[in-house]
Amino acid sequence: MSASVVHRHFLLLAVALVALAMTLLLPTGAEDTILGHKCGMPAAGNASSDAYRSNLNALAAILVAGARANGSAVGAVGAPPDAAYGVALCRGDFTSDACARGLGDALHSAVNDSESAFGCGRQVRDVTLFYDRYQLRLSGVDFLSGDEPRWAGNNTNFVAPADAAQRFDGLVKELVTTIAAIAAERPDRYATGRSRFEEQRLTLYGLVQCTVDMSPERCRACLDGLISAFPATFRPSGQHGGRILVPRCTVRYETDDTFFNTANLSVDLHKPKPSKSWLWATIAVVSVLVLAASFLLHRWRKIRRKRELARLELRRLSLAVKSVINLWRMEEGNSGFSLYDFSQMKGATNGFSIENKLGQGGFGAVYKGLLPDGLEIAVKRLGPRSLQGLLEFKNEIQLIAKLQHRSLVRLLGCCIEGEHEKILVYEYMPNKSLDLIIFDSKKGVSLDWPKRLNIINGISQGLLYLHVHSRLCVVHRDLKATNILLDSEMNPKISDFGMARIFSSSVAESNTTRIVGTHGYIAPEYASDGVCSVKSDVFSFGVLLLEIISGTMTTGSYRYDGKLYKLIAYAWLLWKAGQWQELVDRCLIGNQEYHFTMERYVHVALLCVQESADDRPAMDEVVKMLSSGEGAVLPEPKRPAYFNVRPVGTEMSASCDMSISITLSR
Ligand SMILES: *[C@@H]1O[C@H](CO)[C@@H](O)[C@H](O)[C@H]1NC(C)=O
Ligand SMILES: *[C@@H]1O[C@H](CO)[C@@H](O)[C@H](O)[C@H]1NC(C)=O
Ligand SMILES: *[C@@H]1O[C@H](CO)[C@@H](O)[C@H](O)[C@H]1NC(C)=O
Ligand SMILES: *[C@@H]1O[C@H](CO)[C@@H](O)[C@H](O)[C@H]1NC(C)=O
Ligand SMILES: *[C@@H]1O[C@H](CO)[C@@H](O)[C@H](O)[C@H]1NC(C)=O
């Protein structure tokens, strides 16, 4: 038998090891038990058994060292006819010392088995041993350079699952072909893979390996040879697993992953796709997240834009304030109107101390102040009610500052600090306000009739100026005894004029949303409908006139014919009854030469407080009437406003200087 025939024959036997691969069925630790062995041909001719054995021993050492270092090794020792050729392979996931130990034991058995190496007989010079995780072949024939044999046998030694399908072969082929291509290119010539099939509820694992000395092409050819043998080896019914092993390459597949370490798979085919419900859930979650994110983004942008706008507005305002103040400073010199610093005001009023407080008006508190140059001033700190813009405020103040009349308190200047602090500075009136004198039974005596006439005429001139001669037609809206200030010579000065303008910027007659006025002085049409005109001031003037003549308050109650009346109703009743003298302040009575003017003034006062605004005279007529001689005939006063409004409480009601403030909705 020629060497090549021996070779072929041996190979046919040797490679035909296909193991049952139900790994779970194998007992634990079965990996190192021998799966099978193949014996080759006995030595031909006069070959020396001892020489061969000695070569084998040397070869075994080479193979163990090589396999430990490189995972697999080939070697040849000696010269024919006693040369020894060998190959050893450790499975890719079982390397280095562990494998070297196993291989060493196997080689020891193969070389030193005293009887017959695995039953092959002493003369046999070709032994192949397959273990689960390593394999080796020792031969007296050089098998290393030749091609690996194609698998030609068949084997039915596999468990076939009942439901396995034809396609299974295709699936196996796909997996092992894929990893074979990978293994051939890798330096360790080793590759593993997994392939999953949802419908079949099947997961396939595959492992292929060549010895590292083989070139990629040779490795690929070796593996392809095994793979092409699969259909014949494993019948189409399909199997749980199978392997074909030849000494220099192996192919294996299983439906079970315990046969090798799956930590580093070379491929993972047919990864399960997320199921539809998962898909929908994912889509829903993603959409919700996207919606929420875009909503938040939108909100964030909106807030940012708002802040941006607010910042711009603030900058615009502060620029406006600066420019207005600059403008003001430039005009200051020639207008006789000053712009004061807030610190100046604080210093002048002792930090707006309570000791410096002169009073609290409807528009804010008034403080006495002393400027460094010795000028006494009254400082009115406006409340924060003004909704006016600064520019508008400035225009109004400048208009008001231009109103100059000896019966008007002079506005000396103003002070602005920030957006809210607005202060008006007036000349200081040492004798304070009229109410403090006329309603005081002792001080009232000091104001005799000529002085009262002077006061009344001063007020009427001041009002006339505001209504007619000022070109602005300022309606005071809050004329009352407390707003009439007296200078050192008891000349009257109207204060708080123009406040309505400053606060609401409305002109002569208008429906204002804000009503300013004081109980007892306010005209009925203004109080009830918000209609304000010069005639409302005339009404207040009439009330004031009656107060000055009588020395009593409009808010008091007065008994007539057993019933209580308000001052204006009481005055009218007395007038109708021809008893007007009853009204006159006790301290004025006695001087007959004043009789006519007193009667005339009471008459005019009653004309001013008539119910209908149309019946009331305008200020210029009032002034004419007050100064008219005895020949002039005045109309009879009609019933005054609030005639039927009866006072409540005691006859001598306490002073009631309550400011009322009504806001009408349009
Ligand atoms: C046996 O060996 C001798 C020399 O060592 C040689 O001459 C002879 O041809 C050999 N026989 C065979 C059958 O090879
Ligand atoms: C491992 O392989 C390399 C390269 O193929 C080789 O040079 C080296 O000698 C081998 N190691 C052993 C111990 O055989
Ligand atoms: C076989 O036995 C001899 C002697 O005991 C020993 O030196 C040698 O290493 C053994 N061979 C192997 C492959 O273990
Ligand atoms: C495979 O085995 C069957 C019978 O089990 C046999 O008929 C057939 O010839 C065998 N094929 C090969 C290539 O050995
Ligand atoms: C997997 O591969 C990485 C690097 O490729 C290696 O560090 C790791 O040890 C490997 N794990 C196993 C179990 O082989």
Automatic annotation (TrEMBL):
Full protein name: Protein kinase domain-containing protein
Source organism superkingdom: Eukaryota
GO molecular function, one term: protein serine/threonine kinase activity
Keyword annotations of the record: ATP-binding, Disulfide bond, Glycoprotein, Kinase, Membrane, Nucleotide-binding, Receptor, Repeat, Serine/threonine-protein kinase, Signal, Transferase, Transmembrane, Transmembrane helix
Membrane-crossing residue ranges in chain numbering: 278-297
PROSITE patterns in alphabetical order: GNK2, PROTEIN_KINASE_ATP, PROTEIN_KINASE_DOM, PROTEIN_KINASE_ST
InterPro entries: GNK2, GNK2_sf, Kinase-like_dom_sf, Prot_kinase_dom, Protein_kinase_ATP_BS, Ser-Thr/Tyr_kinase_cat_dom, Ser/Thr_kinase_AS
Record-linked SMART domains: S_TKc
Native source organism of the sequence: Panicum hallii var. hallii
Domain (Gnk2-homologous): residue spans on this chain: 34-143, 147-258
Compartment(s): Membrane
Domain Protein kinase: 352-634
Lineage of source species: Eukaryota, Viridiplantae, Streptophyta, Embryophyta, Tracheophyta
Residues that bind ATP: 380
Membrane topology qualifier: Single-pass membrane protein
